[in-house]
Amino acid sequence: MKIYNTATGRKETFEPLVAGRVSMYACGPTVYNYFHIGNARTFLFFDVVRRWFQYIGFDVRYVQNITDIDDKIIAQATLDVVPAAQVAEKYATAFIEDTNALGIEQPDYQPRATQYIPQMIALIDELVKKGHAYELDGDVYFAVESLPGYGSLARKNLDDLKVGARVAANTRKRHPSDFVLWKAAKPGEPKWDSPWGEGRPGWHTECVVMSQDLLGDTFDIHAGAIDLIFPHHENELAQARARTGKPLANVWMHGGFLNMRGDKMSKSEGNFFTARDVLQKYDAETVRLFFLSKHYRSPIEYSPELLDEARTAMANFYDALQFVGWKPGNDAQASWSDEAKARRDEFIAAMDNDFNTARAVSVLFELARAIKNEKDYAIELRREFARLLVDLGGALGFFTDAASRLEVGGALTGKLLDLLVGYRIEFRSRKMYDMADRVRDDLAALGVELKDTRDGTVWSVRHDEVE
């Protein structure tokens, strides 16, 4: 398996710290509002990374935090005239609800920043004593010049950072890029006692403490969106190196943006849709296919037209399954025919090449076409392709409730459709073609298509029209 490592700028063979196990940390939300569909791309993709490792046999320990104390939370609480903790709890609950609605599996551990305040204070105190941090009027800053190699993750050097510093930067800091570890309390804000007075931790310290507590000093993969490389992940790495002398993670993975009219989708810019908004119009699998049809490191333009295409494509997958009468069972077979194995190998090769979901999805499309290809493939092989479609699609998070979706109203619906198909066959045998055509056309108007095959007449539901 090859993974693009931001730290080195190239694809590298993935070698876990412990054979057969993957330790993975992904930055979660700051819970001050509903997350937007651009955030959903990041959350959903790393759900796929986790699923893929599990599919190929790894034991995965996946941690995703919730930042429940932050300037943005405090600002929202001020607007709402409620305690900051109330805002955080409201939107943390919403985050879990919305990720569930998107078909994202919950992490193994989901720590909240406020649960780790004592450990954060201990880390900051240790950095001060080692000369990597200093106190300034109740605030504590990390001294970037104390750590050789600061800026390596983002490929920045201190001289360039100093030249590019904002004019309004805190001139009392030793270096413009020194970042806050502890913020002195302001009136009305949440606060905790510390050696430097009452205050609260900085964002960059939170993730270091939570990730190392649950995964160890160094773990396999640290993940997030591309905008977290600097300063957030750079500053996490700096604290870890100053504390232990070791890298925080061996592999740093970063996903691309979802853009809106060419610009990054962002709450601060106001050019966004929440995940809740989008899920009112599109089902979770459609959203997943829309994202996975592009490589995770490439930008995507938000497009209702492309989402419509993804919905049609998902309907085609289900139509293919129904076309050969797929039923839930042991879709992950012990062995596959040569034709199926060749397609499975293509899929695995794509995913093992830096999680190339775009190519992997194209294999799913090829399988769907083959399933409907009566001319070139016998029915048993097409049914095997259907099992493979569900097996491989499941590794990406698709078809988790395929049986229910294909049922479309329960067993009675299927029996009634079979009865109508039987009437049509009877009409045709009696040369009552006008009545046979009427049955076909009336069913088509309801979203049910009939197809006469060499194995008999089969019906399928156009799933893009079924709620």
Walk me through what this model shows.
With 467 residues, the chain is of the alpha/beta class. It has three domains: 2-275, HUPs (Rossmann fold), CATH 3.40.50; 281-406, Up-down Bundle (Four Helix Bundle (Hemerythrin (Met), subunit A)), CATH 1.20.120.640; 408-465. Helix content is 46%, strand content 15%. It contains 16 helices and 15 strands. It has helices at residues 37-55, 71-80, 84-101, 117-129, 158-163, 203-215, 229-244, 275-279, 284-292, 304-323, 338-352, 357-371, 379-395, 402-407, 411-429, 433-445, and strands at residues 2-5, 10-13, 21-26, 59-64, 133-136, 139-142, 179-184, 199-201, 219-225, 249-255, 258-260, 263-264, 300-301, 448-453, 456-461. It has a four-stranded parallel beta sheet, with helices on both faces. Strand 5 (133-136) and strand 6 form a beta hairpin. Helix 6 packs across helix 7 and helix 15 (411-429) packs antiparallel against helix 16 (433-445). The chain is elongated. The two termini are 39 Å apart. 41% of the residues are buried. The mean pLDDT is 92.
| CATH C-level of the largest domain | Alpha Beta
* Unreliably modeled segments: none
CATH-level-4 superfamily name of the largest domain? HUPs
- Mean pLDDT across all residues, rounded? 92
- Strand order of the main beta sheet, please? 4-3-9-10
How many domain units? 3
> Whole-Å distance between the termini?
39 Å
CATH architecture of the largest domain: 3-Layer(aba) Sandwich
Helix-and-strand structural type: alpha/beta
Strands, total number? 15
